[in-house]
Specification:
By secondary structure, the chain is mostly helical. It contains 23 helices and no strands.
């Protein structure tokens, strides 16, 4: 008994201690987690960031990269500094003509800082000007109409001086890809398309694998409505990037503009074939995600809508050919005829739909149901004489044996209406008498409503005072 009391006290004491321990842990975590989240910057890694910035501004890009790579690794826990290191690495690699690494670090900076963070990053003013240019070159930003901040678009004297400086540097460094893009951007910002084109043509002649140069040429010629030339350059982009991995955005943009070029050149057949080829690789959302002016976006949507109609028609034509082949192999298979008949009706090719039913009946003369279909189709086409023949034949030997009561009633109704439309009142009177004798007014009314013949039947009633 005493032992049980002791165990009870012990359990209560253990429970209290457990609760207190959990509460203590929660309090500790409450104060600890914010500290972990607000990770302090390690001064050890700040120093190479500062040195890298200084070396970049001094034009010593190779040594800057060595410092900045250390900083980028160590500052991953602090977005502002990590993003800053990535921006400077992107700019350095651009000047070192390593464009893929430059683009990679710029994308990483955007992931870390976000779109707005890139614009407000705490980097030097000179670096901001080059960052704006890189965002444009790597298709991460549209060029503003005001030109390149700090470079041109305002003072012609500054434009001429800066243009001369870049040309002089290119004479000394003809392999420096970044200089070509700087000069191209300068001319473009000042609306000097002629010199911009010349600069890019010099670049792609010197470096035929530089797909960005071809892409920018395509854009300039597209804006000038020289769609044939633009298509040629976008084609070069696709040719160069075809085997490259991780280039989907570039490829999709080139495909879309190639498509728009064909459409603007009124190459409608080529547009459909090109659209089919593109949609075999990408989906519609991929194409519509490309940054386009509103008129080009509308044109692209029109192309995609036209292709959907074309694709459905093509699919139908292929199915028609397949069904015709199967019918030839199995001429008494009614199901194949039915599918072909419905396809033609869906395409509003009524003559062909009628031919299918007539061919089916020719190979299956005892077929009651499809002869009924043919009678209805002929009636809808206002071919009342031919329609009457089909329905009347259903109600006579030998087909009469296989005709259900429901189909017999409907055939009588259609025969009566065909005679009315042909003005044969004497014969019509006999058919109306047969209707009264064999079917109730409720059943006749129901069938007329189901067949959608109320308006036609009212005409008969107005003449013969036929009460249902």
């Amino acid at each position: 008994m005493n032992n049980h009391k002791y165990m009870g006290k012990r359990n209560r004491r253990f429970g209290v201690h457990t609760v207190l321990g959990i509460l203590g842990l929660c309090v500790s975590l409450y104060f600890l987690i914010p500290r972990l989240q607000a990770q302090e910057v390690d001064p050890f890694y700040l120093k190479p960031l500062q040195e890298g910035e200084r070396l970049y501004l001094a034009g010593d890009y190779l040594d800057a990269v060595k410092r900045l790579e250390i900083a980028e690794f160590g500052l991953m826990g602090t977005p502002e500094n990590h993003g800053k290191a990535c921006i400077y690495l992107s700019l350095c690699f651009y000047h070192l003509q390593e464009l893929e690494r430059s683009e990679s670090f710029l994308k990483r900076a955007r992931e870390v800082l976000g779109e707005e963070g890139l614009q407000t990053a705490g980097i030097a003013a000179a670096a901001k000007q080059e960052l704006d240019n890189l965002l444009f070159i790597f298709h991460m930003k549209e060029r503003r109409s005001g030109g390149i901040p700090g470079k041109a678009g305002v003072d012609p004297v500054v434009y001429r001086r800066y243009s001369k400086e870049l040309n002089d540097r290119l004479e000394k460094e003809p392999e420096n890809t970044a200089l070509y893009y700087d000069l191209y951007s300068l001319h473009l910002a000042n609306k000097n398309n002629k010199e911009a084109i010349k600069t890019l043509e010099d670049l792609v002649e010197k470096k035929p694998g530089e797909f960005r140069g071809f892409s920018f040429l395509g854009h300039i010629f597209y804006s000038e409505r020289d769609y044939k030339k633009a298509e040629e350059y976008f084609g070069k982009v696709l040719e160069i990037t075809g085997a490259m991995s991780g280039m989907q955005d570039v490829k999709i943009e080139a495909e879309v503009y190639s498509l728009l070029c064909l459409k603007n050149r009124r190459k409608d057949k080529d547009v459909l074939e090109k659209t089919e080829e593109i949609l075999s690789q990408y989906n519609e959302e991929d194409l519509l995600s490309v940054s386009l002016e509103s008129k080009d976006k509308s044109l692209l949507q029109e192309i995609l809508d036209d292709y959907k109609i074309y694709a459905r028609r093509k699919e139908t034509e292929e199915r028609v050919d397949e069904l015709k082949r199967l019918i030839k192999m199995h001429p008494q298979d009614a199901e194949m005829y039915e599918q072909l008949y419905r396809l033609y009706l869906g395409q509003e090719e009524i003559d062909k739909a009628q031919d299918v039913l007539e061919d089916l009946i020719k190979h299956n003369p005892q077929d009651v149901e499809h002869r009924f279909w043919l009678g209805k189709l002929l009636y809808s086409r206002e071919k009342y004489k031919d329609s009457f023949k089909e329905f009347d034949r259903l109600m006579r030997p030998p087909l009469e044996v296989n005709l259900s009561q429901d189909r017999y009633l409907r055939s009588l109704v259609y025969c009566s209406l065909c005679l009315y439309h042909q003005g044969e009142r004497d014969r019509l009177s006999a058919y109306l008498t047969s209707l009264r004798r064999n079917f109730t007014s409720e059943k006749i009314t129901e069938v007329i409503r189901e067949e959608g013949l109320e308006e036609d039947w009212q005409n008969i009633q107005s003449i013969f005072s036929f009460e249902l």
